[in-house]
Amino acid sequence: MSKIQVTYSAIKANSQGSEKHRSKGPMTRRLNKHPQKMEDLDNKAYRILAVDDDSTVRDLYEGILKANSVLPGIPNFELTCCAQGDEAVEAVKRSFKEKSPYAVAFLDLNMPPGPDGEWTAEEIHNLDPRITTVVVTGYRSTNASNVEQAARFSDKLLYLQKPFHPREIIQFATALSIKWRAQKQLLTMQADLENLVEKRTAELVRSNRMLKIEIVNRKRMQQELQQSFESLKKAMHSTIQAISRTVEMRDPYTSGHQQRVADLAKAIAEQLKLPESQIECIYMAAAIHDIGKISLPAEILVKPIPLSNIEISLIQAHAQAGYDILKGIEFPWPIADIVLQHHERMDGSGYPQGLAGENIVFEARIICVADVVETMASHRPYRPSMGMDKALEEIGKNRGVLYDPRVVDACLKIFQEKGFELPS
Ligand SMILES: [Fe+2]
Question: What CATH number should be reported for the domain whose range is 250-416?
Fold first, then answer.
């Protein structure tokens, strides 16, 4: 009996003794004590390749790994024994076809007449770099090429000194198999992760492309809408100007009144730094604020003498008439309400509703001041111009009484400080 066999027999006896001892306990306790066996090893045997020209040693491998793979904490092994290195290389090739790769290969160093263990290790490494090869040698080599080879294989080529202890084989087989499985799982996870990243990247690229197309479409739609809006606005301006001129054609003595009021109201609104849209609204409403006069008899409009009370009442009805004309038209602003209220006064003394203060829409309060200033500063059929000074004195005197103080201040500022002049 060789030294190796003696040592193995002792270990086997111990193992069997341990097995006997453990068999007294329930199986579940044993499994719970070693959950690693269930989790890490996945109940699948690790394939081990043992290569040695000595059949006694091959039997030894078989005895060690088969006997101990039933022990707790030690995985199941499926052992393949070969007598020569080239047989081992063929076994590794077959394992690819069988889709059942080896985890560890124990290789004898000298296996005459075939190639040695280091040659076999290199061939196996070239076929499957994941297999860890353990060269089992009976002597310590001083050959420098061994060092180079070890460096090239890194942690995939290990050396074990003969005579080995069976426990060393079990420890190597167990640790290297678990490491092999962990590396395999790591590679699988890495591949999964790479696939996921690739998939997500493709999705992102696709989404990005769709987003770019969407942005281009939206920009084009926005441009088309803007163009459409601009042409609608132009059409609306032209219509308002046409209405304004129609009204004034019947009242040649006040020709240009609405346009001048519109210019002044716009200047006041700009002085008040109102939003652009609101300024546009004020300008539009002012340009047709007297549209209701179209319902009045032309004789009243051109009468060169002061009007009677009845005629004044008729004239005052133009605010409501203007509202009635405009209320059905869908402007983007409350033009009809502004026209209705342009003769209201802050103290409630105006018409047609006698509204006061904040109840009068702000745009109407601006047009009101512009209307008063323009009217007083212009000639009328029944009187000559009262002059701009008189007009400004009127709004200053009734600031906060008849007229909105903010509007009055803005109006006075543009005339007195900014040199604004009403167009002739
Ligand atoms: Fe008016």
Answer: 1.10.3210.10
What are the residue boundaries of the structural domains of the chain, listed by start? 3-190, 250-416
Residue 134's pLDDT is what? 92
Q: Is the pLDDT of residue 25 over 50?
A: no
Task: Determine the topology of domain 3-190 in CATH.
Answer: Rossmann fold (3.40.50)
Q: What is the 324 CA–ligand 1 centroid distance (Å)?
A: 14
- Tell me how far the alpha carbon of residue 351 lies from the centroid of ligand 1, in angstroms: 10
Ligand 1 center from residue 316 Cα (angstroms): 8
Q: What percent of the chain has pLDDT over 90?
A: 55
| Ligand 1 centroid to residue 231 C-alpha, Å | 29
* Beta-carbon count within 10 A of 329 CB: 10
Place of tokens 């124990």: 106
Distance CA 262, CA 52 (A): 110
Q: How far is the CA of 298 from the centre of ligand 1 (A)?
A: 15
Residue with tokens 């004590």: 33
- Cβ neighbours for 333, distance < 8 A, ≥ 6 positions apart: 277, 278, 280, 281, 284, 285, 363
- Distances in Å between the Cα of 1 and the Cα atoms of 53, 57, 136, 168, 244 are 17, 12, 20, 20, 127
Q: How far is the CA of 358 from the centre of ligand 1 (A)?
A: 20
Task: State the pLDDT at residue 244.
Answer: 80
Whether 3-190 shares its CATH topology with 250-416 is answered no
